[in-house]
Amino acid sequence: MLDVRRLRLLRELAYRGTIAAVAEALTFTPSAVSQQLAALEREAGVALLERTGRRVALTPAGVALVRHAEAVLERLEQAAAELAAARGDLSGTVRIGAFPTATRAILPSALAALAHSHQGLDPMVDEVDPAEVAPRLRAGELDVALVHEYDFVPAEPDLALDAVPLLDEPMYLATIRPVGGEGDAARLLACREEPWIASTPGTLCHAMTVRACQAAGFSPRVRHHIDDFATVLAMVAVGQGVALVPELGAADPPEDVTLTALSMRRRTRVAFRRGAGGHPAVVALIAALRVATSHVRTPG
Amino acid sequence: MLDVRRLRLLRELAYRGTIAAVAEALTFTPSAVSQQLAALEREAGVALLERTGRRVALTPAGVALVRHAEAVLERLEQAAAELAAARGDLSGTVRIGAFPTATRAILPSALAALAHSHQGLDPMVDEVDPAEVAPRLRAGELDVALVHEYDFVPAEPDLALDAVPLLDEPMYLATIRPVGGEGDAARLLACREEPWIASTPGTLCHAMTVRACQAAGFSPRVRHHIDDFATVLAMVAVGQGVALVPELGAADPPEDVTLTALSMRRRTRVAFRRGAGGHPAVVALIAALRVATSHVRTPG
DNA sequence: GAAACCGTTAAGGTGAACTGATGCTCGATG
DNA sequence: CATCGAGCATCAGTTCACCTTAACGGTTTC
């Protein structure tokens, strides 16, 4: 019988591309991963890995096997979720991953709601880099994660993960003076000469600002890199530049700031391992998130 | 992550009902099975087994978990089948289980066809007790098996196994003198005073004869217990009794024997582990069986 | 009431799997 | 072209999980 632990290594290899990365993700040494994959290959009787240069790639047979691995792992996840539901007590730790912006804007009230509805549940928040969310969910280091998806910055689908929509907010253009024009492009173009305030380079929010401006036909001159939208608005208020902020980041804006609604939107989703959607802790957390965001949520 | 090997033990327990039987089926000691199931239960956090007297029974949570185990094992079987197909060479051993009657009547020509079409394949036949077919298929000791199903003796469905129909033959009443009457019941009743020749008690074929007569309204007086239908016909020919034989057992009957076709039938199916239907060796063997039985097969 | 059966527990041995070290190949860099 | 680093494979050593043996307690049956 094929060893599921080894299949898990193979799946991880399909996502990460190198044995070293797999080893780091699952806290093994590369040696162990190499040995186990070699054993899997021997057992399979077919070449699953192809040594190309100093990397390894999956053969077609390897890719096919990964699909089966996904299915098996999903079903095991379902089984675990059902056991947790049968356990009933709903205690234990839920590990939540979130970007800094989501942490500040959504999680506090969600955790309050969760504490109220499920006292036994012990939430544990990890602020994680967006790129690390998917791997850490797969590896079981996180149970649920909040992920954003902007127009112009689509999230790539992950076969091992599932997600449900949570928020769908409009984006606002934050300026000092009212902005004229019709349509997103015209309004952004009206600010092409202004200095811009964006998030830290490398983040989704940063890419969102840059790409939106590029779609309007210009490259923004980014003066400040600030992640917290409240701070961003404060900077806008004192004339340091203009910025794009989502509705959740634009609550209670400074008086001097003008917010112009755009048609572009930010969608927030709750991601979890495929199969874990029935896990009572996941269900409870999603419910709490919905409660916490019910005043913002717009029908998507 | 739930351990699939342990889930396999749990599934086997669902079928067999005692830990000792599971241990024997999978060639472990009862101690090992007990320990592993205890570990699974600890891991699950829910009671999966209920100690009732000197036996154990599955709790509802245990039953639910078994369903997941079935699904996982089926998918692993599929993966293995796909790997075998990718391997392509189609070598190795196929273990075939069959009742004695099937062995004699079908397998020789099927194996000849297989040897012709797939030289690399190494068939290995095991004559097995009907009751042992399902467990040994599940345990991986057999890859395919021929199973019979008579009217009055339906086979019980097995969630872990799959099967395709192979044969659907009429049954014959073998006598010395022509039998009058219309309908199966009338014809059998005409022989109610005759001595009967049936198979060994405990076999399906034995049950078939007894139940058919009971359905006709009498209990047959069984004088001889003989499994081989050719021998049965020879006994009928010398006046030792009457018998029910399937078409495959009635090829080339002795001159003195009268065969009266009945409406009751015997269906033969090829069983294999769920998920293994795509395994090239299974595909090849089924094809060979169809070739070997094509002269008998009636549209079912 | 004895015997057979079944499941659990404790103790001990074995093998699988992981770590750490070493060597090799490939690719990038100056 | 030489050097360096990244990445994978292999080998030896160790640890730990799992299985077996042995012994015990409870239950059913004759």
UniProtKB/TrEMBL annotation, chains A, B:
Cited Pfam families: HTH_1, LysR_substrate
Coiled coil: none
Protein's UniProt name: DNA-binding transcriptional regulator, LysR family
Signal peptide range in chain numbering: none
The family this protein is said to belong to: Belongs to the LysR transcriptional regulatory family.
Residue ranges of domain HTH lysR-type in the record: 2-59
Gene Ontology CC annotations of this record: protein-DNA complex
Domain of life: Bacteria
Source species of the chain: Microbispora rosea
Keyword tags: DNA-binding, Transcription, Transcription regulation
